[in-house]
Structures are given as C-alpha cells and as structure tokens.
Automatic annotation (TrEMBL):
Subcellular location: Nucleus
GO CC terms of this entry: nucleus
Species in which this protein is naturally found: Acer saccharum (Sugar maple)
Record carries keyword Nucleus: yes
Primary location class: nucleus
InterPro entries found in the cross-reference section: LSD1-like, Multihaem_cyt_sf, Znf_LSD1
Domain spans labelled Zinc finger LSD1-type: 29-53, 68-92, 106-130
Keyword line: Nucleus
TM spans (from-to): none
Protein name as catalogued: Zinc finger LSD1-type domain-containing protein
Pfam family, one: zf-LSD1
C-alpha cells in the first residue's frame, strides 16, 4: 500500500541585509602603501600591517589614481590636484587636468595594460614587451577618465 507524500515545506526567505550595512570603501595606507578596506563612515583607519593611522577623506571627496613615474606604485589622491608626491620614492608626479588613462592589450601576451593617455608606447610588466600605441587610438585601446 503506497504511503502518501507530504508536500515540501516552504523554504525560509533568504536574509537580506539592510542597504548600506557593511558598505566599505578603500584607501591606500599612508605608511606601507597597502590597500585598506574600511567601513563607510569611519574617520581614520589603522593598518594591520604597519599600524600607521591614515585619515579618511571627507564623504563626497572624489578620489583619482595614477601610477608613479619613478617606482610604479599606484597612488591615490584627491581629484583636482595638479601634482602628487610619491611617499615611496618622493617623485613628484604631474596629475593631468583630465586625469585620463588608457588601456591596451599587450602585443605579445595580451595582458591588459594601463598607461597615461597620449603615450606612444607602453612596456608590459609581465613579459617586458613594448607595445606601440601611437598618436591615434586603435581598436584595442580604451580611454577612461580615472
């Protein structure tokens, strides 16, 4: 004699955290240059690696990035700055008005490369191949305001 099967119970609704709960932002440590994640609303962040305390820019401050011309460290700065001094090698980097960067695939290994928009060539850090980007934009080059 067959036994009737009970219907499957309704699964509980998945937990949905409230909007903005656990929201994080990021900045570069003023001591060791590591990327730090911090909860939105924090006023300063203590680095777990070097214990340096880095002040968080006020809310609404738009940040930009550039790669240092001296040591190739990624630098973050407040958008609108005209120059940025690297804390690693102390090179003063010119921050272009438009803060434009471009991307192109390496001509050898196809790695996506980022470079200052307007450059004539870019050297791949993976395979050391120099990709010519010329004065005109090619189909593989993409311009971004960074």
């Amino acid at each position: 004699m067959p036994v009737p099967l009970a219907p499957y119970p309704t699964p509980p609704a998945p937990y949905t955290p409230p909007a903005n709960a656990g929201a994080q932002s990021q900045l570069v440590c003023s001591g060791c240059r590591n990327l730090l994640l911090y909860p939105v609303g924090a006023t300063s962040v203590c680095c777990a690696v070097c214990n340096a305390v880095t002040a968080v820019p006020p809310p609404g401050t738009e940040m930009a990035q550039l790669v240092c011309g001296g040591c190739h460290t990624l630098l973050m700065y407040i958008r609108g700055a005209t120059s940025v001094q690297c804390s690693c090698c102390h090179t003063v980097n010119l921050a272009l008005e438009a803060n434009q960067v471009a991307h192109v695939n390496c001509g050898n290994c196809r790695m996506l490369l980022m470079y200052q928009y307007g450059a004539r060539s870019v050297k791949c850090a993976v395979c050391n191949f120099v990709t010519s980007v010329g004065a005109s934009t090619s189909g593989t080059e993409q311009k971004f305001n960074g």
